Amino acid sequence: MDTFLGFDAVMLARMQFGFTVAFHFIFPAVSIGLASFLAVLNGLFLWTKDEAYLRLFKYWLKIFAITFAMGVVSGITMSYQFGTNWSVFSDIAGPVIGPLMAYEVLTAFFLEAGFLGIMIFGRDKVGPGLHMFACLMVAVGTAISATWILSVNSWMQTPQGFAVAENGQFVPEDWWAIIFNPSFPYRLAHTLTAAYLTTAFIVGGVGAWHLLRGQRENPGVRTMFSMAMWMAAIVAPVQIFLGDAHGLNTLEHQPAKVMAMEGHFESHPDGAPLYLFGIPDQEAQELKYAVGIPKLSSLILKHHLDAPLDGLDTIPRDEQPPVAVVFWSFRVMVGIGFAMLGIGMWSLWARFRKRLFEAPWLHRAALVMGPSGLVAVIAGWITTEVGRQPYVVYGALRTAEAHSPLGASAVGASLIAFVVIYFVIFGAGVAYILKLMHHAPALGERGVRVEPGPIRTAGVTPQNQMRESGHDIAPETP
């Protein structure tokens, strides 16, 4: 078998797609939440005329513009892999996923692109009403974009509404069933809420940083930290509820994934324990050094302590996902979710005591938790995608049968190139974002700098240009 550094072409293609998606995912996760945050800030400024909201809008607009641009670029390079490393998948599933991804471009990307310039540069050019409308359209566009992409991903997890043609292609029979497949509503709600929480903790982390640096009287800093903590306190419990509902849906349609998440190698006819920790040994089909709470998994998944739960001993070995990866990524995601809940409750207590801005340990905790949402969304994505293995379209198309007929060396070389280029280019972008976050929002925050536009040509003379620019000129001689 052709290998590169010990990996075959399929594994290398999976590693390349996993790396590029993980890199890409962090930017939309931030831009989705920031777009809505900016629309709220702009609306609050128009309503209250409070300078702090305008200051924050201009401050975060610069960060949003860079994040949005990096998300677009990283998404384009990622999508090319459908034709390079996964051409068989594109050929077989293309009649279903191709139109859905085209709808994302037509309905969401064009909407964002059409109003993004007005949002960034148009505050003093189009009037407050149209500028506010542009902010709303960009926010709506990011949500619509996520909707189509998650519909595609959810169909790959819970496929329905299609038939297999004589040439082996998946052809659509019912578009409503394809788009609104069984896992789509749960995945959409869970992912969008994760994006909003991710943004809230980044904003809260930046606010905490400046509070710790002595900016307690800065209205912009106080406002951003307060709004972020409200978001954490309200949305974190909602996200835990949505995650539980999503898990129950996954148990119904992808039971092997839940078995891997729970570390259940064996079936439990009289109630399954909730394993907190352990070392999955897939070869031996056991969870070593397991630490668990008896029957709690049955209570969570079946709402009854003695409810039976099947284990991976009911799944053939070649149908099982990589248990160790799914087991630990799931715990990282859930652990961060409960830590977010803890920060939200802590902030409510500090707010009740009127010490939200004079609680240094809360600020330190919020600063540490600043990037936690990014880690959680990547861990959640790993749980979802690795848990689907060995299928790329669950139950219909195996991953090993979907890759392009490429040599391992070719895929490995492109993977190395991606890693080097991504860390150089996107590392520079992230460094610049951190530099922008380093300074506190100031009175008269400039926002995105607008360069002078083209000079009018009709009826303009050099003399008139000098007058308009404020230069003194000698009177004309007869």
UniProtKB/TrEMBL annotation:
Protein name: Cytochrome d ubiquinol oxidase subunit I
Molecular-function GO terms, alphabetical: oxidoreductase activity
Enzyme Commission number, as recorded: 1.10.3.-
Originating species: Limimaricola variabilis
Signal sequence, renumbered to the chain: none
Ranges of biased composition (kind: Basic and acidic residues): 468-478
Family: Belongs to the cytochrome ubiquinol oxidase subunit 1 family.
EC top class, as a word: oxidoreductase
Compartments reported by the entry: Cell inner membrane; Cell membrane
Annotated transmembrane regions: 21-47, 59-80, 100-122, 129-150, 193-212, 224-242, 325-349, 361-382, 411-434
